[in-house]
Amino acid sequence: MHLTLHADYSLRVLLYLASRPGRVTSTQEMADAYGISKHHLVRVVQTLAGQGYVDARAGRTGGVTLAREPKGIVLGAVVRAAEPDFDVVECFNRERNACPIAPACGLKGVLGEARDAFLSVLDRYTLADAMDRSRSDLADLFLPARAS
Questions:
Q1: What per-residue confidence (pLDDT) applies to 144?
Q2: Strand 54-57 and strand 63-66: pairing?
Q3: Which stretches of the chain drop beneath a pLDDT of 50?
Q4: Of 31, 54, 107, 110, which cross-links 48 as Cys (Cβ 3.0–4.6 Å)?
Q5: Among candidates 99, 87, 14, which has minimal Cα distance to 53?
Q6: Which pTM was predicted?
Q7: pLDDT of 106
Q8: In DSSP terms, which residues pair with 74 in a beta bridge?
Q9: Is 5-83+126-141 CATH 1.10.10.10?
Q10: Long-range contacts: 133-142, Cβ < 8 Å, 24+?
Q11: Phi/psi class of residue 105: alpha, beta or left (left: φ > 0; alpha: ψ in -120 to 50)?
Q12: Phi-psi category of 59—alpha, beta or left, where left has phi over 0 and alpha has psi -120 to 50?
């Protein structure tokens, strides 16, 4: 299973903001810190704002902050909000399923169970848990390298 960049970046944005509690952060700052497209990050922030995970304000004094405490942000819910689907294999999608063995295959149930287990593990953790598991210098890793 592979998360889309949208889900990956959603988790990264939340980690970035949690590592700077109470600070308003620009999407450009986060894009620079991660070396990723600002345009893509803006769409990620829109998704997170739409789900109530972040507050995003436009303009010169605008920026992004966490809208909830990290302990109130369940990682499984974030991934579900950011992922377009969890069709692990073609036969999970009834409309696009062209697999000739789908009616007789026993893998769909096994793969569905594995997907559910993956999400179940994410549901046991919050952003606060991820922060607790992160190194104490996490925020420093986002700083630009200094010239020697």
A1: 55
A2: antiparallel
A3: 145-148
A4: 54
A5: 14
A6: 0.85
A7: 84
A8: 126
A9: yes
A10: 134/15, 134/19, 138/15, 138/19, 139/19, 139/20, 142/16, 142/19, 142/33, 142/34
A11: beta
A12: left
As a whole number of Å, the CA-based R_g of the chain is 18
Q: Can you tell me the distance from the alpha carbon of 45 to that of 50, in angstroms, rounded to the nearest whole number? A: 8
| Structure-block tokens of residue 141 | 């890793």
Least Cα distance to 66 among 142, 123, 127, 6 occurs for 127
13-34 pLDDT, tens digit each: 999 999 988 899 999 999 999 9
Question: Is 24 strand, coil or helix?
Answer: coil
Q: Quick one: pLDDT at residue 145?
A: 47
Cα torsion angle, 43, 87, 90, 93, sign: negative
Domain spans in the chain, listed from the N-terminal domain onward: 5-83+126-141
Residue 85: what pLDDT?
Answer: 84
65 pairs with which residues across the strands?
A: 55
What CA–CA distance (Å, rounded) separates 101 from 81? 31
DSSP element (H, E) containing 63: strand 63-66
